[in-house]
């Protein structure tokens, strides 16, 4: 940010006309509010941390006090750098590459329960219908997936029901994240978090796309009175960018002709923006400040009844951006409920609406006059260039909390205390400086050392060449001591590195251990050898301790990821629902049909869930292990094992497992129905066999009775015939004369 900007007084949010001048003054006012001592201190620390990472670790105070003598001349010491900051940052960056996160959305609005109850009632209705019309029962069960009884239908419904809204938003946020390549941006997030202690992502609408960029932390400014670690309670925030004129003219089509001319004149003169930042500004680029702040607006509020029968507090006679007519008018207002919220607003049966002041997000894209001033055209002869301003179209409102709006930034901090952001490498800077100083002392002592040798009295040696040769080869030497003795004519001297120099390396190791204790990045985490005598338990303890201390770092990246996904769920939905084609590309045609059937999708409040996962290779190994266990337990079949083995994740395995369980349950139901049908058929067949046998038995009895009757008749006839014959013989015998 520029320290040369003239700060404006705060405009009146109630009485002032909210025109271009209003937005320009508010932008300047908040730039002044942001440029306090805490922000300037933070910028200096970020610059310092980056210089240490690059190896520029000898600061002016070190040079003045350590590398120069009392006269100010350069002493015989070198600027030695043993960079421990770079491996520390690279450890964070490397682990961020392996950080895989999976996001999903879940609706937290009351409507989700209503939709579930409505879907269950439809299933129950079809169950009753198929029982009332047995002719169509089989077709109803097949097409509507219901059971024969209400209990069976309920069990099927609970196992299979998925909220289409939540699934649709999950598809949407995952697609937007893929479009913005958030996974690759994690490397930049880790870098910024290490240097500054903050991750800042800016979201903006570019055509039909919702774009996300990771901002350099030093280009971000915010309300230092905020107390939440994600800065959601800030009253303003923004950033600055260095843009070339072509980008400015393309992005902002409604720039005034005189403003275009001033911009082009500044660049043509080879000017450089009046900047004071941690990055050197480029000639030909202009500083553009983007500022968002919470303003106030007054509208009529009242309770309406949505299509699900719930009462909601909504704006009355208000036309939302992008719409032509109010969603709700006076005729939609109903009697307020007897709740604490309604009583607080003073709403009752006699007073159904009220004028209410609420928060609204305003913005301004500003080029201050100081940033395009030149020697020939000073800033007092120029006006601020307001590129764009107004009420931000996508407020990111939560309908359960109408006064809660969302800035188009996703922010997370490593440590945020009393308006100051702390970086994780901050405590490693001073030990790093001491390591460099000690190494410089060691280098100086090494440079001054000259080895060991001896000196002798030249007058005691007759043949100097022979003397030196004999000394070198270890042969006896001849000298003339003249009664003074050998010790007085030959002496040994030692100018090797003193033992005290070696002890300095122990001090260096001590400072290195200080860095490890402060950051938690120890040898075990870096994969360095710690000696063969170190116990496995000690190594495990170091890994656990280091992982525990680094957890806030990766949790900050995860929180930034959740914040971005939350913005995609609420604002991305509002952007893409206006463009059916782009919406279909991201969520599919089926979900677009759901959204078209229910325009109240924009009233849904979503909650984002993000889980950290391992690398794809590790996930596939875990999935393969799960598949083998499930297969051995006969919880999946051969087809699922063949489809998923070697190319799935545990989440996909779980999805297929639930699907297989549902299919297995349906098969069991069908099998029970078939068995029941077979049992009925078997009983019918037994009954039929019994009837057949009874009929056969009855027929046989009839036959036997008929035969018996015929036998009796024959016998009777025979007896009758015998009687007739006997009578005839008797009559004949009586007629024959004796």
What topology does this entry show?
Layout: H1 20-34, H2 37-54, H3 60-67, H4 85-97, E1 100-107, H5 111-132, H6 137-144, H7 150-160, H8 164-179, H9 182-196, E2 198-206, E3 209-214, E4 220-222, E5 236-243, H10 245-251, H11 257-268, E6 286-305, E7 311-316, H12 340-345, E8 353-367, E9 385-391, E10 409-413, E11 415-417, E12 420-422, H13 429-448, E13 451-456, H14 464-473, E14 490-495, H15 499-519, H16 523-526, H17 536-576, H18 580-587, H19 589-597, E15 606-613, H20 616-632, H21 638-644, H22 650-735
Antiparallel strand pairs: 1-15, 2-3, 2-10, 4-5, 5-6, 6-7, 6-8, 8-9, 11-12, 13-14
Helix pairs in contact: 4-9, 5-6, 5-7, 8-17, 9-17, 13-15, 18-19, 20-22
Structural write-up:
The protein has helices spanning 20-34, 37-54, 60-67, 85-97, 111-132, 137-144, 150-160, 164-179, 182-196, 245-251, 257-268, 340-345, 429-448, 464-473, 499-519, 523-526, 536-576, 580-587, 589-597, 616-632, 638-644, 650-735, and strands at residues 100-107, 198-206, 209-214, 220-222, 236-243, 286-305, 311-316, 353-367, 385-391, 409-413, 415-417, 420-422, 451-456, 490-495, 606-613. The chain is an alpha+beta fold. Residues 273-281, 534-543 and 591-598 have low confidence and may be disordered. The strands form 5 sheets. Strands 4, 5, 6, 7, 8 and 9 form a 6-stranded antiparallel β-sheet that branches. Strands 3-2-10 form a 3-stranded antiparallel β-sheet. Helix 8 (164-179) packs across helix 17, helix 9 (182-196) crosses helix 17 and helix 20 (616-632) runs parallel beside helix 22 (650-735). Among the domains are: 1-35 and 236-394, no CATH class; 452-496, no CATH class; 628-738. It has 22 helices and 15 strands. Strand 6 and strand 7 (311-316) form a beta hairpin.
